[in-house]
Amino acid sequence: MCLILTDADYVFADHAGQQEWDRLRAIEACFDPTTRRRIEQIKLTPGWSCLEVGPGAGSIMRWLASRVGPAGRVLALDINPRFVGVVDSPHLEVRRQDVAEFCEVAAFDFIHTRYVLMHVPRWREAFANLVRALKPGGWLLLEEPDFSTAAPADPDHPESGAVARVNAAVLRLYEGMGIDPRFGRRLPALCQEFGLEDVAVETDLPLVPGGSGVASMMGTSLSHLAERLAATGAASREDVEVYARLAEDPTVWGQYYTTVATWGRRLAIKPDASVSAAQNFEIV
User: Fold this and answer.
1) How many beta carbons lie within 10 A of that of residue 82, not counting itself?
2) 225-241, pLDDT tens digit by residue?
3) What is the Cα–Cα distance from 156 to 282, expressed in whole angstroms?
4) CA 206 to CA 186: how far, in whole Å?
5) What's the CA gap between 201 and 184, in Å, rounded?
6) pLDDT of the residue at 86
């Protein structure tokens, strides 16, 4: 049985259309260059079949389509693909579907997801579906956050306490929703548990001044969540206002959340080989 993920499960589900579009575009501007570099490391090849889970505003799915060419295939899954825009490539398909219900088997040379699995209530089922969907020898690249590493760069700054309280409120907000705010840390062990080989890890911890891409994006995002952050009791609305102001101040540096990128390759093994008895999961 798979739980259907709905917009209500997503922390930014109530974000107005233009605001959410702007936030997604800001995420792309901040993180796409590094994501593309990581994909290049696995030597993406024309003709490959690719799966993009949670395409957001669609930049990576379109880039993948341009790289695999007309002989390839790119499928993008999203529970609400309202922000991907017009799809004008014949080898690019956008499908409205929950990854926990996805059931293609041995269909993709490469699968990517960024900041998605932590929001999926039954992420183990989703993870198993992604591994099943890989062709033997296919690659899975996962990028997920660890919010626990966020901290004021200068603990002696007179307003560092507000920043620390907002960071604590973020952790409490996610935990209250049943979401692990440190989810990125799980990825390497999960890849091993589900039988992937050649597992590698790369972490990205931004230490940047206010007004830079990550800082501005976080200031805008947390301003939208001000009431919910205040409701945790760990921070006040005034703390969030201070956080947002400092996030635009180029003289104030901040350490933001870590992105944990983990990639691995599916084993080319016999169909009856079990990956994990505990998960009752088989590569088929």
Assistant:
1) 12
2) 999 999 999 999 999 99
3) 53
4) 20
5) 10
6) 76
Predicted confidence at residue 269, as pLDDT, reads 56
236 contacts 153 by C-beta, under 8 angstroms:
no
b/e sequence 41-67, b meaning 16+ C-beta within 10 Å: ebebeeebbbbbbbbbbbbbbbbbbeb
Cα atoms in the Cβ-side hemisphere of radius 13 Å centred on 66: 7
Q: Are 252 and 196 in contact (CB under 8 A)?
A: no
Q: Tell me the β-bridge partners of 209.
A: 253
241 closest CA partner among 230, 257, 253 = 230
Distances from the Cα of 264 to the Cαs of 151, 191, 195, 199, in angstroms? 30, 7, 9, 4
Spatial CB neighbours of 97, under 8 Å, sequence gap ≥ 6: 77, 78, 79
Q: What angle do CA 257, 21, 222 make, to 5 degrees?
A: 35
Give the angle subtended at the CA of 166 by the CAs of 163 and 171, to the nearest 5°: 130
CA distance 241 to 222: 9
242's tokens: 């201070």
Q: How far is CA 42 from the centre of its chain?
A: 19
CB 101 within 8 A of CB 2: yes
Supply the mean pLDDT for the chain: 89
CB 237 within 8 A of CB 226: yes
Q: How far is CA 261 from CA 13, 51, 235, in A?
A: 25, 17, 30
Q: How far is the C-alpha of 54 from the C-alpha of 157, rounded, in Å?
A: 38
* Choice among 174-183, 208-217, 225-234, 269-278 with the minimum mean pLDDT: 269-278
User: In this structure, what token pair is assigned to residue 233?
Assistant: 């009791």
